Amino acid sequence: MSEPWQGLPEPLADDVAGCWHSVFPEGVPGWLVSPEGMSETVIATAISRSLFLRQTLQRHLEHVRALLDPRPLTEPTTPDYLNSRWQEFLGSVDGEPALHTALRQFRMESQFRIIWRDLMRWADLAETMAATSAFADTCIDGALNWLYRDSCEQYGTPRGADPITGQESDQKMVVLGMGKLGGRELNVSSDIDLIFAFPGKGETVGGRRSLDNQQFFVRLGQRLIQALDQITADGFVFRVDMRLRPYGQSGALALSFAALETYYQDQGRDWERYAMVKARVVAGDQRAGRVLMDSLRPFVYRKYIDFSAFESLRSMKAMISREVRRQGMENNIKLGSGGIREIEFVVQAFQLIRGGRDRELQQRELLVILKELEALELLPPSVVQELREAYIFLRNLEHALQGMEDKQTQLLPEDALARARVAAIMGFDSWDECDQALQAHRKRVATHFANIIATEDDDQEDRDAPEEGWQEIWLAEMQEAAALEWLKARGYEKPEATLAELDELRANRTVQTLQTQGRRRLNQFMPMLLAKLTEVENPSETLSRVLQLVEAILRRTAYMVLLLENPGACTQLVRLCSESPWIARQLAETPLLLDELLNAESLYHPPAKAELQDDLRQQMLRIPFEDLEEQMESLRHFKKAHILRVAASELKGTLPLMKVSDYLTWIAEVVLDHVVEVAFANLVSRHGYPRRADGSACETDFAIIGYGKLGGIELGYTSDLDLVFVHKADPEQVTDGDKSIDNAVFYTRLGQRIVHILNTQTPSGQLYEVDMRLRPSGNSGLLVSTLQAFEKYQREDAWTWEHQALARARGVAGCKDTLEAFEAIRHDILCEKRDRQKLRDDVVDMREKMRASLGTPESQQAEVFHIKHDTGGIVDIEFMVQYLMLAWCFEHPELTQWSDNIRQMEELGRAGVLAVEDAEKLREAFISLRSTIHRRALQNLNSQVAGDAFPDERDYIRAMWKKVMIET
């Protein structure tokens, strides 16, 4: 008798033979093979294709029997069946823990059924997508209905105006499903993007105490997320992503219809239009949901033909392409070239452009829209056919990749066994055949995408070829004497050194071992680079700097292609490296930054803070909060990319010093805000939300206070961050999760997680170096203080220098209420009445100690001047300003409104504490000294200059020090 795995491809047969008896130690039960269409051979085929199916049979055979009783696997998985099956599970739910258990058992059963039918090809793509989406709808709506009733019993029923009649009525939540869930195209192992909404303002009635409607629905939303997302002993149901809601993770969890409509009308971004194309009411009040969707339709679909959609889609695709390059995800069938996302972009471009006029395009399912594009003659039938076939192939392949282990992935496998599984699922005899078909589809998709979405510039091939002599120089085909003469004639200031560096590069072991394609790209790139270098004043020196980058990308020659195909980017590269060795090093350390050079307009005009926030939000949308490593890498790239823009703008003169510091500070603030969100979400997923004394959950109640350069809005390119962490939660309370901990422990861990994210060295380097020594009691103090403890320390135990530091402190990230409470404490502390003589003595004494330890030794002062620490330098100005703030805020409380030296000096002049002329001259001297430090940083130089530098400024600062700190 033959074994059931005989006939399977060899690696799969061997694999099943090795596990068969561990899966079925007592043999295959009769009930499993008794339904028509089932047999041991069929079962062997299924477990050869999926570890998830195998492990479920091995560990949960009784659940498999339960799922087969109402319907065999050979029958289609319909929405009606899923709903009726959920009602059976719901019958045993008598509390929230039981709800969680029922949902997870329902998931295991449904997932087994859907993946089995898909991987065995008993279901086509349409059934798999519809079943997975219907399963999600059933879970979300089922959990919401149960939790809504339970919440009404606890807090009362929310009441407000009916969105249609305007009459007072009960209100229910509306849950919008975005992305593939909204389009009923969900993957077999996917997260779900949701937005929570409710009709309008009001409050609950009939409960123990009344709640504002928004509070009610935020709490309901939190419970719904926990019901679906929380990992328990039974697993989870869906990973829930709420970051597509207005304002992202920093926005309210649930918004009224009016708030949503106002947001999208006033602040809606292009990418949010793109997301809203798929939006669908998946759970809750369907009747009210239709009203909401009608109100948002004008935001998504313009009445006129809107060709601006092309540009926004190009920008989104460029962002995704950068991410693919950064993570090496060319094997990602969703995001890589010719992948699923490009088909989606093509289809949704037409929806956004013409959907307002052609109502047929206001549908969600991609394959349906493709038919409409053909019917409207917007795409030729041949293009539609190729895109349809590629989409079906890629989505089936995506399900094959995910169904093998019930794991969300779009990456092609690298090991032979997994490849054999995928090939078998896709109906091929070998991986090579499968891959060949895949590449053919991807090539066709990439071509159509380029024809439809790409810019005209992408198709221009009129690149100026470099003179032939550069090729001879690079390949060492020109005689040395002639080569030296050639270089010298074209402006190379050190031709001998240039030839030596080119010889060294050619002899580099990596260059010697390059594959054919890589060598070809290098041989194309180097002559172009050598020609471009003649456009700057110091080509030999600039070449030395650029070669750091060339060596870094020898194994990633796609970056050379980027520069070859974008001569403008190569021009920017040469220009920036010519002007700044610091920028050259940044590019060598992070070649992905080359993407920033593609758009000269954005390169030399960095975005304002609101745009920074939006940019970071878009970059982080698809990275789960729990994927801390990827979050950290993306944050580092975000910071480096935007700091490069600031540096480029400063070098070109489009940003003055004050604006440079503003932008560098904004970058840090945006990063810190996101780090707080990530760290907080990470801890909440484990321990729940901290509780307040009234039993309600804290949003965060946590804030980061910036001191020093961050607090003073004076960050430089390499500045560290002086931080203090505070919170205003009740430390005696505990969190509301299954693994609850004291609030005090929660916030300490939150602080530790934030420092870890900022400080850790990753392949992309360190995000920021963090200094926490300015917290109460310094390194011996608690990492995170309550606001009450912080205030008590400042009033009773702080030294004068700590009050000096407080003058430059301000809230920079975290909970708005906590930040406001800190500012009130800072104002009160700075406005305390002080003995001015004692204060002056303390400040002068501290300044002398700093000068002795950090300033230039007396024996070297004739040769060297330290711009920051020496007499007549920046710290003298800072200490004078801090003394005057502490001495006069009692009489002039308006002085506390600013934390930066520049505006504090201006305010001191306005208040009459300093003569206006003195305030202005000090300000000019301060800016002059700081500008020099910035410029030197871009040259990789320290803050020490010649001993005779800045004579006028130093004389004036010394005179003012004597006047303010000695003679007064």
From TrEMBL:
All copies of the Glutamate-ammonia ligase adenylyltransferase repeated domain together span 44-289, 571-823
Q: Which cofactor does it need?
A: Mg(2+)
- EC number from the UniProt entry: 2.7.7.89, 2.7.7.42
Enumerate the residue ranges of region (Adenylyl removase). 1-457
Q: Which reaction does it catalyse?
A: [glutamine synthetase]-O(4)-(5'-adenylyl)-L-tyrosine + phosphate = [glutamine synthetase]-L-tyrosine + ADP; [glutamine synthetase]-L-tyrosine + ATP = [glutamine synthetase]-O(4)-(5'-adenylyl)-L-tyrosine + diphosphate
Checking Gene3D superfamilies in the record gives:
1.20.120.1510, Beta Polymerase, domain 2, Nucleotidyltransferases domain 2
The UniProt family comment states: Belongs to the GlnE family.
The record's NCBIfam families line, in alphabetical order, gives: PRK11072.1 (NF008292)
Tell me the protein's name. Bifunctional glutamine synthetase adenylyltransferase/adenylyl-removing enzyme
* Native organism: Marinobacter gudaonensis
